[in-house]
Structures are given as C-alpha cells and as structure tokens.
C-alpha cells in the first residue's frame, strides 16, 4: 500500500525554492512544457536535488501552490521562467527533519496518533533489546503496517554506518 505524504513534503519544501527549481529545470531544458517524467528525471537524476519520490511529490506541491499547471498531460509553469532570477549557485534544499520525525509522520499519515506511534516505536526498540536505533524501530513498525519505507532505508543505513 503506497501512502502519499503531501503534508510531510510541504514541510520540507520551500515554495520560493521550488519556484527557482522549476525555472532552473525549464530554462535548462529550453522547453515551455515538460512531462512529469522529464521533470522528475531532471530533479532526481540530472540535478540530484531530490529522490524520484520527492521529485514527484514536489510536482504535486507545485501544482497545488499554483506554480505549475497541467495541460494536455504536460507540466507548464504559471510564471515566466525567463524572467525568474535563479541564483547561480542555487540548489533546491529540503529542510532538515530527522528520519525519526519523518517516519513518525508516515505512521501518523496512516491514521495513527503521534502518541501511539511514539509509544509503539519505544516498545519495538525495547522488544529488540535496545539494539536498534529509534529510527529503525519506527521503520519496522511502518513496514509492519505495510507502508512504503523504501525512501527511508538508505538514510537509515547511512546513519547506522556513520553512527549518527
């Protein structure tokens, strides 16, 4: 079961930054219309600013915020990208939210209360004898609830390896 997380991504994406990212992608492609796939590819693989899932969610946020519109299956900016002043060193950044907080928010998005999610994460960690991090415990619960945790796995692994 795939869960959409608009509220989590909206907390992570600065709308002005998203506008700059849209201008950067469209200017770079030299096109006035792009497919969702082209836009996602640019953000995730060419620019490496977001994961593919985050890129798709950023598109949805841009549509909701009125920065993009869809016409004939293509994304079209609602502003003049040629007039947009994108700083030379611009890079779309997500605000720093911990993996644990984002995983708890994932559980909340599935209908669990924050208190219940935190309590279950603590119990799961206890169940593993304290041998796992709070992040891993919360991810285990999300996986048990059949939520999509793939986007978080690499980050959790990196935290374990880097001991952060």
Give the topology, please.
Elements: H1 6-12, H2 15-29, H3 36-46, H4 52-64, E1 68-71, E2 74-77, H5 99-109, H6 114-127, H7 134-144, H8 150-162
Antiparallel strand pairs: 1-2
Helix pairs in contact: 3-4, 5-7, 6-7
| Cα-to-Cα separation, first versus last residue | 30 Å
Beta-strand fraction estimate? under 5%
For the record, the CATH architecture of the largest domain stands as Orthogonal Bundle
Low-pLDDT parts are 1-8
| C-alpha-based Rg, rounded | 18 Å
Widest beta sheet: strand line-up = 1-2
Number of strands: 2
Helicity, as a percent range: 55-70%
Helix/strand structural class: mainly alpha
**Biggest sheet statistics:** 2 strands, antiparallel
Number of helices: 8
- Overall outline: elongated
Mean pLDDT: 86
The CATH class of the largest domain is identified as Mainly Alpha
CATH topology of the largest domain: Arc Repressor Mutant, subunit A
List the secondary-structure elements in sequence, H or E.
Answer: HHHHEEHHHH
Domain module count: 2
Pfam family, one: DUF2240
InterPro entries: DUF2240 (IPR018716)
Protein model, in words:
Helix 5 runs parallel beside helix 7. This protein folds into 2 domains: 6-77, Arc Repressor Mutant, subunit A (Orthogonal Bundle), CATH 1.10.10; 99-162, no CATH class. It has 164 residues and is mainly alpha-helical. The radius of gyration is 18 Å and the shape is elongated. It has 8 helices and 2 strands, in the order ααααββαααα. It has a two-stranded antiparallel sheet.
């Amino acid at each position: 079961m795939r869960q959409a997380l608009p509220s989590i991504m909206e907390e992570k994406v600065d709308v002005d930054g998203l506008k700059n990212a849209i201008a950067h992608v469209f200017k770079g492609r030299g096109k006035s219309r792009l497919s969702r796939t082209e836009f996602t590819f640019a953000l995730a693989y060419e620019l490496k600013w977001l994961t593919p899932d985050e890129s798709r969610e950023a598109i949805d946020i841009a549509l909701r915020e009125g920065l993009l519109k869809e016409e004939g299956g293509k994304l079209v900016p609602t502003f003049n990208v040629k007039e947009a002043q994108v700083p030379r060193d611009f890079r779309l950044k997500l605000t720093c939210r911990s993996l644990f907080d984002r995983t708890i928010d994932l559980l909340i998005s599935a209908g669990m209360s924050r208190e219940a999610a935190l309590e279950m994460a603590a119990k799961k960690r206890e169940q593993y004898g304290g041998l796992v991090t709070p992040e891993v415990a919360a991810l285990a619960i999300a996986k048990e609830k059949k939520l999509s945790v793939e986007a978080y796995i690499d980050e959790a692994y990196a935290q374990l390896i880097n001991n952060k």
